[in-house]
Amino acid sequence: MSDQSSPSTLRVFTFSPDWGLPTNGPFALKLLAWLELAGIPYEQVVENNSSKGPKGKSPWVELDGKPMGDSELIVEELSRRHGADLDEGLTPEQRALGFAWRRTFEEHYHQVLEWELLLHSAGAAYMREFFGRVAPKPVAPLLFAMIWRQFRKQLHARGIARHSPEVIAAKGRADLDALAAFLGDRPFLVADRPTTADTAVFGLLAPMVFWPMNTPVADHAKSLPAIQAYCDRMRERCFGSKAQLDRP
Ligand SMILES: N[C@@H](CCC(=O)N[C@@H](CS)C(=O)NCC(=O)O)C(=O)O
């Protein structure tokens, strides 16, 4: 992470660091990974209340004093402003492939991740403890109960929570098996260097690969050498020794 703070430094609002990662938020991890690879200085501000963001979601940034949400829109804007393009030189086919992987993990796998983190008993136990750590003691249990209810409703609306736990686990494992088969010996998704798609897929994968809770899809991710090696490689490439310092 850059520490060249100045009044004009980009401020990036993310959930707390955890699990040896600079943040436990998947889309925030994607954004931080992108910023590191693009070489854009930033100041990370930990804010665990996503409702403070302009879209009610984490992450968001402050650009020219104005808040901006959505990691995809932020990356597009910063890429334009800084002339930083991780996808330079990619063929249309490589771009299309990266796009399909990114959408798979952001739109489908994300549902599985949130389900395991909020609605699986091991994930929920972590979240209860997490709120106990980051929120004022008297309100922490209430806050956890409120977030839990909100996610249950949201995950039902998105579709995933309408399935049985077995079906949800099978759906998550299917995403991982497809990615592991595709990765094989590839160091990164579509090139011999990390591109935008890698920042997104890593952001969504790494929390489950590095969290210590035993949830079915996270356990499966940890059992796949190609997935584990890919996350280790991306973490090292983006955050280097800093990631090791943050390890719980
Ligand atoms: N499309 C958004 C997704 C962000 C997102 O879903 N953030 C989640 C955490 S990973 C969040 O803030 N959820 C809180 C909520 O929905 O209330 C992006 O790319 O930034």
TrEMBL record:
Ranges annotated as spanning the membrane: none
Domain of life: Bacteria
UniProt-listed Gene3D superfamilies: 1.20.1050.10, Glutaredoxin (3.40.30.10)
Molecular-function annotations in GO: transferase activity
Domain GST C-terminal residue range list: 91-248
Pfam assignment, any one: GST_N_4
Record's keyword terms, sorted: Transferase
GO cellular component, one term: cytoplasm
SUPFAM superfamilies cross-referenced by the UniProt entry: GST C-terminal domain-like (SSF47616), Thioredoxin-like (SSF52833)
InterPro entries named among the record's database cross-references: FAX/IsoI-like, Glutathione-S-Trfase_C-like, Glutathione-S-Trfase_C_sf, Glutathione_S-Trfase, Metaxin_GST, Mito_Protein_Transport_Metaxin, Thioredoxin-like_fold, Thioredoxin-like_sf
Designated name of the protein: Glutathione S-transferase
The species this protein was found in: Wenxinia marina DSM 24838
